[in-house]
Amino acid sequence: MKKTTILLGLLWCPFLHVSAQKNRELSFDNFYFFAQVGAIKDYDLFVQAGVFVQYEKHYFRFSIADGTDGQSETQKQFHKSHRNCDCEVEVRGIHAINFEYGKVYKFFRRQQISLSSGFSIVTKTDPDVIFNQNKAPWEDEKFKKSTTVGLPYEVRYSLMVMKGVGVGCSYYGNLNARKHFNGVSLGVAIGLF
Question: Using CA atoms in the order 110, 116, 119, 125, what is the torsion angle rounded to 10 degrees?
Answer without folding.
Answer: 80
